[in-house]
Design goal:
Elements (H helix, E strand, L loop, with lengths): L1 H7 L17 E4 L2 E7 L2 E2 L2 E2 L10 H23 L5 E12 L7 H16 L6 E7 L8 E9 L1
Parallel strand pairs: 5-6
Antiparallel strand pairs: 1-2, 2-7, 3-4, 5-7
Helix pairs in contact: 2-3
Pfam families: YjgF_endoribonc
Protein name: Endoribonuclease L-PSP
InterPro entries: Endoribo_LPSP/chorism_mut-like (IPR013813), RutC-like_sf (IPR035959)
Length: 150
């Protein structure tokens, strides 16, 4: 049902990107999954790079959506079935922003809204949205997640 919902909104869950450093993509502890920060990668390339400003906020929202899709891809690789997700607990969103940019929540809302659209009430979560001076590979956004599973 979840994967049908994802397909119905036009999203394809990709093969997740490999780690770009000395870490693992997902750590399972009890019934929680801690998903490492995901950047907007597609087919092994960062698709949204550079600093976020008021002029390119819509592009940054697209970057956040790709991060959320990559979170789901990592979860699917780890547990095999997105139906096992019982709750999106928390997202931490980072925006590679110019110093005067203050709309970080609007950027990360794109990821939050997507997860709510897919999971309904189970997709509502706690969150932090921060501006940072740089991100790996000059990506516009990076998002990590804590997810509860059945």
């Amino acid at each position: 049902m979840i994967e049908e919902k994802i397909k119905s909104i036009g999203i394809k869950i990709p093969i997740p990107p490999n780690p770009a450093g000395s870490y693992i993509p997902v750590v399972k502890s009890g019934n929680l999954l801690f998903v490492s920060g995901q950047i907007p990668m597609e087919d092994g390339k960062v698709v949204f790079t550079g600093k976020v400003s008021d002029a390119n906020i819509e592009t940054a929202k697209k970057a956040a959506i790709v991060c959320a899709v990559n979170i789901l891809a990592q979860i699917k690789k780890e547990i095999g079935d997105l139906e096992k997700i019982s709750r999106i607990v928390k997202l931490s969103g980072f925006v590679n922003a110019v110093p005067e940019f203050t709309q970080h929540p609007k950027v990360i809302n794109a990821a939050s809204d997507l997860l709510y659209e897919i999971f309904g009430e189970k997709g509502k979560h706690a969150r932090v949205a921060l501006g940072v001076s740089s991100l790996p590979l000059n990506s516009m956004t990076e998002i990590d997640a804590i997810v509860e599973i059945k």
